[in-house]
Design goal:
9 helices; six-stranded parallel sheet; single chain
């Protein structure tokens, strides 16, 4: 008998420096596909595997809050900012499991992130606390698995699952899911702003207004 559990919750982390439609649209689709109760957007305080964000945490939080305000299924979660120090996903999942003991937790990420997951802090333990749902671009990610390390390939083969398994168990499954992915990057947005180019239609208008108000990325 499948375990009787509550609705799944999506977990989506990043620096959001700045947040844009490439962060928002795929997660809205995943929310619908997996009937997620909501998606928690969790800005990192100090990402362990990349350079520090250019923008202070408080302003990145404010940008995400403005970006997701119109979507009731999106929730801002500031636990990594409050915790300080390196923002290890495993620590965040442990904290969320305490808050939501009866909900499947779904760690949402793109194919690039999943391909490097064996470089993450205690990566073998992530599936003890959550499922992993990987946003897949059908056109460009079809052969992505051929570039995975042996460790990532083994992880996927051991834990891959059908959609229905995500809602029936609390953790431990991996699902590749085709979604609409927009070729927008925070790096490109920052470069456009530095070069005094328009960023209209790359992110929600309230975020653009905040960037102008704080004079960010110039």
């Amino acid at each position: 008998m499948p375990l009787k559990v509550k609705s799944p919750i999506g977990i989506y982390g990043g620096t959001f420096d700045p947040v844009h439609y490439g962060h928002l649209r795929p997660n809205l689709e995943l929310c619908e596909i997996f009937a997620l109760d909501h998606v928690r957007f969790i800005p990192a305080f100090a990402p362990p595997h990349r350079e520090a964000p250019q923008t202070p945490a408080e302003q990145r939080l404010e940008m995400v809050a403005q970006a997701i305000e119109a979507e009731s299924r999106f929730v801002l979660d500031d636990r990594e900012i409050k915790r300080g120090g390196p923002s290890y996903t495993l620590d965040t999942l442990k904290s969320l499991r305490q808050d939501y003991p009866d909900n499947p937790l779904c760690l949402l990420m793109g194919m690039d992130a999943f391909a490097a997951i064996d470089c993450w802090y205690h990566w073998q333990e992530l599936l003890d606390y959550a499922h992993i749902i990987v946003s897949q671009r059908p056109e460009t990610d079809f052969h992505a698995s051929e570039q995975w390390s042996t460790a990532v390939q083994a992880l996927y083969e051991q834990h891959q699952a059908e959609r229905k398994a995500i809602s029936q168990t609390l953790c431990g499954k991996i699902r590749l899911e085709p979604v609409t992915q927009l070729s927008i990057s925070a790096t490109d947005i920052r470069n456009r702003l530095k070069n005094k180019q328009s960023i209209r239609f790359l992110m929600p208008e309230p975020v653009i207004n905040l960037i102008k108000y704080y004079n960010l990325y110039t």
